[in-house]
Amino acid sequence: MPELPEVETTINGLRILKNKKVIKVKVYTKKLRYNIPDYIHKTITGQRIKEINRIAKYILIKFKNNITIIIHLGMSGRLKILKKNFIKEKHDHLMLYFRDNYVLALNDTRKFSFVDVVETENICNKKYISSLGIDALSNKLSADYIYGKIHKSVVPIKQILLNQHIVAGIGNIYASEILFDAKISPLTLGRDLLADQINQIIKSIKKILKKAIRYKGSSIRDYRSFDGTLGNFQSNFKVYGKAGKKISSYEIIKIIQYGRTTYFCPKIQKEQNSN
DNA sequence: CACTCTCCCTGAAAGC
DNA sequence: TGCTTTCAGGGAGAGT
Q1: Which of the listed CATH numbers 2.60.40.1190, 1.10.8.50, 3.90.1200.10, 3.40.190.10 matches domain A134-274?
Q2: pLDDT for res A128
Q3: Is the pTM of this model over 0.70?
Q4: Straight-line distance from CA A156 to C1' B9, in Å?
Q5: The domain A4-130: what is its CATH number?
Q6: H-type helices in A183-237, by residue range?
Q7: Domain boundaries, chain A
Q8: Residue A74 CA to C9 C1' — how many Å?
Q9: Of chain A residues 194-253, which have a beta carbon within 7 Å of strand B?
Q10: What parts of chain A have a pLDDT lower than 70?
Q11: CA A183 – CA A212 distance, rounded (Å)
Q12: A186 CB closer than 7 A to any strand C atom
């Protein structure tokens, strides 16, 4: 579920917790992808949230005592904000109770999410943070940068887009959507991409991700209540999940690349070498 | 080093 | 209908 637009939408929803004080921390499932550190209790109980932001798909909840909770949502994780008379649901693994009856719950069916607790100034010492490439929405993302990373690569562009060490934030759905928008075949190898194509990919990254964020943002009720709905962007998918459907008489197909599904329209998305 | 594959986990959907 | 198999939006770590 959570790629960059979902994470962005989530942190926008979480901002109502700014300045609120944690009065209790409950860990219902310690072992997620990694164990939730035991010291989460004493490091944030009684503390107020200073700010909430993200690095790529990592959510950072920063407290005023210089502690940051880092949350990665994995495949199926989501954060819910609950009010006083909430009911704990299946797969709620961590709950932060705030003054004023707010509760923040991490719910994750598949337990691929993780929660880390670090001193704020040491966030970048975490290997999973420091090894990230440039954020997909950063204006530092340039064709020169991408070219430098991929001009010798024999990996297909679809997989390159999923590589968080190159561009951070794109996931499996938006990778297909971005390449369709750029009219580039997901099979094209990194070293075969032309400068124009790299520029086009960057444009499509911004366009698709921003549009996705806009659609989530337009359904405020969805994320304010954190009811698990995906927002409205699904109906905007052009190719993802649409194998067998047609775009102006050209068929969309599904292939498997590196164990992940890719959807594309071969007639519209050309490989440079096949022309 | 660069690339590829498996695995972590649960449940919905597809297959039989 | 009910049982079995496949697959899912992420990413680390092992293997080649």
Answers
A1: 1.10.8.50
A2: 96
A3: yes
A4: 28
A5: 3.20.190.10
A6: 195-218, 220-225
A7: 4-130, 134-274
A8: 9
A9: none
A10: 1, 217-235, 272-275
A11: 19
A12: no
Residue A221 near residue A181 (C-beta atoms within 8 A) = no
Cβ contact A209 with chain C strand, < 7 A:
no
Residue owning tokens 């901002």: A15
Are A21 and A48 spatial neighbours (Cβ–Cβ below 8 Å)? yes
Q: How distant is C1' of B4 from CA of A151, in Å?
A: 19
A30 CB-to-strand B distance under 7 Å: no
List the catalytic residues of A: 2-3, 57, 260
**Cβ-proximal residues to A52 (8 Å cutoff; 6+ apart), any chain:** A11, A14, A15, A17, A18, A59, A60, A61, A62
Please report the pLDDT score of residue A227 as a whole number.
41
**For residue A255, what pLDDT is reported?**
95
A94 burial class (0-12, 13-18, 19+ CB within 10 angstroms)?
buried
Measured distance CA(A107)–CA(A222) in Å, rounded: 16
Q: Which of A240, A235, A141, A132 has its CA nearest to residue A186?
A: A240
